[in-house]
Amino acid sequence: MLSFKWRHFEKEIILLNVRWYLAYPLSYRNLEEIAEERGYHVDHSTLNRWVINYAPELEKEFHKKKRPVNGRWRMDETYIKVKG
Hints:
The protein is an all-alpha fold. The chain has a domain at 11-65. Helices cover 55% and strands 0% of the residues. The chain is built from 3 helices and no strands. It has helices spanning 11-23, 28-38, 44-65. It is elongated and about 60 Å long. The mean pLDDT is 87.
């Protein structure tokens, strides 16, 4: 369970920044700049600590909810011309 007790920033801000770091090729300094543009100041080292603390927990939660992949494919009618 993710604990946000005693954190200076709100839960939503922390999770948003961690998600952005994991989902997109952004550096901590890029995220720091984005945060400034959105109206709050957070240091790049704080972002690093957030990722170290929360990324493993988020990954566990994601894998719990991830649907299994099977070998079946569903396709609509498609015409493919092969060699000609």
